Amino acid sequence: MDDRQLLESIRDLIGRTETSDDCAAFPLDNGKKILVSTTDMLHETTDFPKGMTEWQMGWMSVAVSLSDVASCGAQPTQILVAAGLDRAERLKPIMEGAVACAKACDAKIAGGDIDSHTELTIVTTAFGVVDKEYYCTRSGAQPGDLVCVTGRPGAAQAGLDGYSGYWENLVMPKPQVFTGQRIAHSGATAMMDVSDGLAISLYDMSEASGVGFDLRENHLPLLPIADAKRYFLYGGGDYGLLFTIPQEKFVKMDVPVSVIGEVVEGDGVRMGDEQVEKRGYAHHID
Amino acid sequence: MDDRQLLESIRDLIGRTETSDDCAAFPLDNGKKILVSTTDMLHETTDFPKGMTEWQMGWMSVAVSLSDVASCGAQPTQILVAAGLDRAERLKPIMEGAVACAKACDAKIAGGDIDSHTELTIVTTAFGVVDKEYYCTRSGAQPGDLVCVTGRPGAAQAGLDGYSGYWENLVMPKPQVFTGQRIAHSGATAMMDVSDGLAISLYDMSEASGVGFDLRENHLPLLPIADAKRYFLYGGGDYGLLFTIPQEKFVKMDVPVSVIGEVVEGDGVRMGDEQVEKRGYAHHID
To answer: What residues of chain B, 71 to 110, have a C-beta less than 8 Å from chain A?
Structure first.
């Protein structure tokens, strides 16, 4: 069973809204603002490729949570870090990397928990605040909207597979915090990050919004490597943003993004005549 | 090195305030309210005694974080649960216990993360909101204040050591959420929970407040077991609240608490002529 199927098994217990977006939402200031929050567990054997430094592990741990905050269009405020350590001396460089990533996004490490653990395990929780009118979720994409991404999906996977020029994309993902806010202010109708891979993210957004996506094969920001389209669609570990936006609002945007298709009525994700496979990166749990 | 020493090693990096209280604080509504947040990592070999059910593990995981929220005088709002599972089928009963504990405190599981892990690892993050005037921390105790606790510190440790009548104190701790708010509204000057043991908590509060504590040996709510004083002072795993309050405010309180001593000038923790040992439960990290 993978983590998506497991999540399905507790949907009725926790609630459908609570298990649908990357962030939880809580109204502030009489509903004028929204506090978003998100938590992510990373551990050594599954999430930290061999060759990463502790500093990079700390950076990455914070980055994955800030990316979820970014995908709501929110400004991150505080981060909590729970560190389960197999060796005590790893804490300091991990926290230095964590602080560096938080600072780069104008956020702050505000607390945490320290524990011993057989396997290095880092759980970050990030909060952010966004004006209600700019709050983005996975639902809201409308037929006619353009489908866009930031960055170059597939780069982290390429780094993992030995393309050394993309190693940094893998181990030091840059959460798109400021870009996310610009996108939200420009009028995006739906947004999420592509950390599990672009194809599965498109399916998640398509299902949450009740629409289909038609991708334009000639417009994809592919990497100059073999099998580039496969990396683009199915590679995981990138923390770019996927969003939809009406055409008239898109033309006024001033952040660098790539248009990769458009929202259509119906469901599913197509590229030309082909159906895009519904698969991506998923944790497998026995 | 234990977790307290490790925390000391990153104090300069993270900040002294950020590493001093159980909860992080963030101002809301132009500073009229405070959002508190806290995160706790529990895992099977260290934190879940043999014989606990998954349901109880879920309950306890939420309870430890809600206890920190309670110690600020705050009403918990949302909880995030990151679950690292060694076996997929454990998720559902864990989440049922988590939901039950959240509901018992008028809070809500708002999201989380699911991961596979070699060892069952549960990280809970809880938020709460409190009016600024009632917000309690470990600092603020004033000479002349009474020192009080809720419940019977030592009961969880007794349960762990085979006193079966106290097993439930160990595996289903009750976060003192409503009592915590009543205490805060009554005018407590400092508050924290005693999860690491009463003695070490007294020292933590004494250092944060810059005062000493004199305990009254004849007033302690000891358990009717051998070595009761040792259990009372040094047992861990209870989630009662320790707080200080001026005498004139204490007399108007209507929640059941025990007065165990008073705040004095100076430092340290004494009982009669004896110094109380500065020790308690601590995670040891190699």
So the answer is: 77-78, 80-85, 87-88, 91-92, 95-96, 99, 108-110
